[in-house]
Amino acid sequence: MKKVMYAMVILLCFGCANNNSKTIKMEDSRAFEITEEASTSYLSEADAYSILIQQKLQEYLDKKTLLKTNPDFNTETEEYKLISIKNNPNIKRIELISPFEIVSDSIKKVVTKVVLEHQTDTIITFIKTSTIVIDNKTYKTHKIAFKKTEDIGN
Predict the structure, then answer these.
(1) Chain-centre distance of CA 38, in angstroms?
(2) How distant, in Å, are the alpha carbons of 50, 59, 83, 115, 116 from that of 88?
(3) Cβ burial, residue 126 (10 Å; 0-12/13-18/19+)
(4) 80-113: string of b/e by CB count within 10 Å (b at 16+)?
(5) Separation CA 33–CA 36 (nearest Å)
(6) What is the DSSP letter of 103?
(7) Would you state the pLDDT for residue 90?
(8) Per-residue pLDDT tens for 21-62?
(9) Which of 2, 38, 53, 101 has most Cβ atoms within 10 angstroms of its Cβ?
(10) Residues in a beta bridge with 121
(11) How do residues 84-108 score in pLDDT, each as one tens digit?
C-alpha cells in the first residue's frame, strides 16, 4: 500500500511539474512588443487625430440618440447642438479640411468635415494635449472639444 502511494505521488509530481501552457518565453513577448510598436509607427499624426475625432464624434452622436429616445438619461446642463441628428446616424468619414492651427503650446485647432449617412457638416475641432507621469512613465493625453462653425465668432 505504501509503495502504491509513493508511486502515485511521484507520478503526480512529474505530471504537474512542467506545464508548458503556463510558461511564457521572453522572446515571444518581446517580439509582440516590437510588432505592436512597428504597427503604430506607420500612422501619421493627421490620421491618428482623424481616428480619435471620429471616435469622439460617434460617442457624441450615440449619446444624443440615447437622450432622444430616453430623456431620463439627461445629466448635462449644457444644451447645444453640434450636429443635427436624425435616425441613429453613423459617421462615414472624417476629413481635416485645414492644416492644424496652433492656438497655444498645448491646443491645436482644425476645421473638420463630418460626412454622415445622409448629410455633411463642418465643425471646428480643438485638440488639447497634455503630458502626465504615472509610475515614472510619461504618457500623452488628448482631449477633444467641438464647436459649430457659427459659434466661433461668439
Answers:
(1) 18
(2) 21, 12, 12, 14, 10
(3) middle
(4) eebbebeeebebeebebeeeeeeeeeeebbbbbe
(5) 5
(6) S
(7) 79
(8) 555 554 544 545 555 455 555 778 888 888 898 899 888 888
(9) 53
(10) 114
(11) 666 667 788 888 888 889 988 899 9
Copy the grid coordinates of residue 10. Answer: 511521484
Contacts for 12 with CB less than 8 Å, ≥ 6 apart: none
Residue in this structure with the C-alpha cell 490620421, named with its chain if needed: 47
Residue 69 or residue 137, greater confidence: 137
User: CA separation (Å) from 127 to 15, 55, 97?
Assistant: 57, 13, 15
Tens digit of each residue's pLDDT (9 = 90 or more) over 102-147: 988 899 999 989 888 888 888 899 999 999 999 999 998 989 988 8
| Residue linked to cell 521572453 | 26
From the number of C-beta atoms within 10 Å of its C-beta (0-12, 13-18, 19+), residue 49 rates as: buried
